[in-house]
Give the backbone structure.
Amino acid sequence: MFIDTSAFGALADENDDHHQDAIAILDRLVEVGYGQFTSNTVVVESHALIVSGIGINAGLRFLSEVEASRIARVRVRPADEQAALEILFRYDDKDFSFADATSFALMRRLGITLAFTFDSHFAQMGFIIATAENV
């Protein structure tokens, strides 16, 4: 299971529209014992989102929680960045971010098909978006 920025943001922000869903999905992930992965670029993007949205302390709390968690942080490789660029130029009718495209490339490389995200771009690329019911 790949964890995206939108999931981290929803978990961190009690005012996020997806906060309760994110908690339910996370609880289910822990219950079922899914392996959890994210990338270094998602951690950077998530930290920036959390700091700008709810403050420095929340950003530091996020980093501490990721550090203490069992989430495997996979570094984006140069080949992933190249694959991300190819995705962006191939699907130029989509508004994927470069961070999204690196996530797609990394997920493909690792054979991960399930994403903990509230970003519909993952479904557009053929990934399964996790819900509390399908985890």
Remarks:
- The chain has a mean pLDDT of 96.
- The longest helix spans residues 40-54.
